[in-house]
Design brief:
33% of the residues lie in helices and 25% in strands. The protein is of the alpha+beta class. The strands form two sheets. A three-stranded mixed β-sheet has the order 1-3-2, with no helix packed on it. Strand 2 and strand 3 form a beta hairpin. The N and C termini lie far apart (72 Å).
């Protein structure tokens, strides 16, 4: 038994198939016409923002993307609490200086 499938935007889908792309969509029976219908999803690929390094600190670094500012630190636990807290404060000051320097460079 043969079944016919109604394809929404068939010309665009055939062009995508000829280009070698895969097509995702949904296959359903239309409530009004009772016809088996395929409708492709027009999903856009996610755009990942790339972080670029703007500065270094003693125990981490500072990265910047189009929308975010990322600051990471990594301390060995063998340092002890007092030395870790002191190093965190020093790294915070270095990161703040890097942010100000980067802002000045971009403003010029």
């Amino acid at each position: 038994m043969k079944k016919f499938i109604f394809v929404v935007n068939a010309i665009e889908l055939i062009a995508r198939l000829l280009a070698g792309e895969s097509i995702e969509g949904k296959l359903y029976i239309d409530k009004d016409t009772q016809v088996l219908t395929f409708k492709a999803w027009n999903r856009k690929a996610p755009k990942y923002t790339k972080y670029r390094k703007t500065g270094d600190t003693d125990y981490g670094g500072l990265w910047k993307s189009d929308r975010h500012l990322l600051w990471r630190e990594k301390f060995p636990l063998s340092m002890g609490l007092d030395r870790i807290l002191t190093a965190m404060e020093a790294d915070k000051n270095q990161a703040q200086k890097n942010v100000v320097t980067d802002y000045i460079i971009e403003s010029v």
